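Hello again,

I reread your note about wanting to compare the complex against the isolated chains. To keep things tidy I'm splitting this into two emails, and this first one only covers the full assembly. Below are the input lines as submitted, including protein chains and any nucleic acid or small-molecule components. They are followed by the predicted structure of everything together. The single-chain runs will come separately.
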Amino acid sequence: MIEYRNLRVAVLGGGSVGSQVTALLLEHADELAARAGAGLEVVGVAVRDLDAPRDTDIPKELLTTDAESLIVGADIVIELIGGLEPARTWILKALHSGADVITANKALLAHHGAELFEEAAQVGAQLYYEAAVAGAIPIIRPLRDSLAGDRVQRILGIVNGTTNFILDRMDVTGDSFDNALAEATRLGFAEADPTADIEGYDAAQKAALLASLAFHTRVPLDAVHREGITTVTADQVVAARKAGYVVKLLAICERVLNADGGIDGVSARVHPALVPLTHPLAAVHGGNNAVFVEAEAAGSLMFYGAGAGGLETASAVLGDVVSAARRHVIGGPGVAESTHADLPILPISRVLTRYQITLTVVDEPGVLATIAAVFSDHGVSVEAVNQTVGAVIEGVPSATLITVSHEATDESLAATVAALADNSVVREVVSVLRVEGL
Amino acid sequence: MIEYRNLRVAVLGGGSVGSQVTALLLEHADELAARAGAGLEVVGVAVRDLDAPRDTDIPKELLTTDAESLIVGADIVIELIGGLEPARTWILKALHSGADVITANKALLAHHGAELFEEAAQVGAQLYYEAAVAGAIPIIRPLRDSLAGDRVQRILGIVNGTTNFILDRMDVTGDSFDNALAEATRLGFAEADPTADIEGYDAAQKAALLASLAFHTRVPLDAVHREGITTVTADQVVAARKAGYVVKLLAICERVLNADGGIDGVSARVHPALVPLTHPLAAVHGGNNAVFVEAEAAGSLMFYGAGAGGLETASAVLGDVVSAARRHVIGGPGVAESTHADLPILPISRVLTRYQITLTVVDEPGVLATIAAVFSDHGVSVEAVNQTVGAVIEGVPSATLITVSHEATDESLAATVAALADNSVVREVVSVLRVEGL
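Full-complex prediction:
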């Protein structure tokens, strides 16, 4: 039944994902061949250390430390070593030799995507990266193909399992950030050095990939506004729930429209935000991921599933392997990167958002009017104010004021916060969080 | 920038979806061309009546009643007339002439899919049908491509917006089925003749398509067990919520394993079922759709969005149009239907499920033991029993007994219900519902 020649598959990396991918390629060989229309022969697995312990046994004779030789002559190269180098050099070499490349390396794509996609387009090879965003959840193909005839307006993504685990735990148990992080580390949801996750670097890389794809515009990583979750307090999380929200770290990609409804540009940003409890993203618990997409014709879509474990990532990688193999059998060049729109990329200051601002103020007549004037001076209108009486500080009674703004530019909102902090009736700016998904 | 020749696109059908698709093809022509790599020229829209009123204006000069001439010479044919004939004949004609075909016609695919896919494979054309299941929600491409390297174990789908609207309304308002249906009709969620929806025919067609794709096995429509929602009572819905469930019409596709963990075969079925309130599907409200997929490596995934409105369906159709156009530009035949697994298709009697059975019984000592014996005589074990005192009927006190079984074959469970109905201590079998998603 299989008439095409066997395709030579090289795996770069023998870590958690690499060993799972190799095991599945060997174990499910017949099934994958039937689906691909060609046999898939693993020609080798390049590792740094032949004797390192692995999640899944890889046959000794497949292991090699000579990645460069492995790449030569491979039809499909699977890059699972992570990091920028030598991954970049090896992928370029593979593409240059005409191999299709599959990678889960979001950092590399976010930093060097343009160069890699250009090399792929020049030789007619294809660069697949479904595993780079949200583990096994199909999101690259739906954005590239399924929504290719639609116009994506906005993406709200929970794309980092570690931070979602931490924030969910803070919400459920009342834990502080530090305690929730310790628990995440203990359970293997956070790495020994959690910086990339908790500071939002990982999510920012994924935001750059999603925005580029959704808006047919190269969005470089350094254009993504990034805030992590280390400053989120237990008090903020408790107050959020009381007000009908949950705090999530969101990757947000959106088209920014001008007053005439034309497109001013696009923006990508990562920051903690208040999400209404009624929004589907609020129900994404633990280490799970979800990507909520709003498109002109399709309306609201959500893609939900587990984050990026070894096995989940292997599922996405193998889906790409079958696609690559089918493409080999069919012939012809791959689908090139689509950057035709080339829209301006706007800084976060230009983005329309809402702020929830919690203040401790002096509790005396006229304070609310003073605060309201600060908002209106900055062109920001207030949607809701909630005032509760607080402690008496140095003989002066104080009150807590929780305000939620209407939509305004992030620039005006930030300026409003700065002015509030300087105002004599304000004792403290307790919390500032953006509100999304309303 | 666009160097390929214009591709000739023929639209068959000028109804709600057809007019939306045509409008978007014309309005977004430049954008679609940039994404596809070739211009998309609408060569005509075949309609029955040139003067019928339409949702969106179609330029008069594009309208024609001569579909057959339109098909000749088209590169891409979009079939949106629905029904079996002449849709089948026209699609065969289009494929035979080498055109790629896009259809939203689940009834046609469920009845004549094998014939159409074979014709497509023979000429190397491609048959796209993302719009046939769950409107704009990308599910065909994720199953065909993204999960091509994984093994799907189970699909639980809310794939019919009308029935989900009705059941959700019964749940939220306590309405009877008849009243909820009337409301659905009033709001345009149900057609004048709602039979196809409320009797589960529409969902069964989608189940056949999903099962065929997920299991690489042709699952014919008549192998899909089908029950509608017309017998679901307000009492059942209220009792379900009290017990921590919500009633949903589910399309269920699953692999059935034997005792050794080998695959006995696959099954597809549509019936109302109790879904735990903690399951993501329980949160799918109104006319929305969602498909929950369990795969060996990927774990649990969910795809969520609006049901099949005109605009949503147009989004899915246009995604397929861009894919078809890219394929033309690249060259080579399409990806053929994958039916290599060719697994046995099992009847519902072989499927493992759970029943919630609500009985009115005579309230006297020993009744519970009698009931329990009926279960065990059929090899079914009981997970939970809940007994409440009921009315005195003809001098004899009665009680309501709600039992939830452990997993057993549908055959054993059905036999248990029959035996219970015949037992003298049972006054009435009040409700029988399967439980899914535990």
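For quick reference: The mean pLDDT of chain B is 91.

B.
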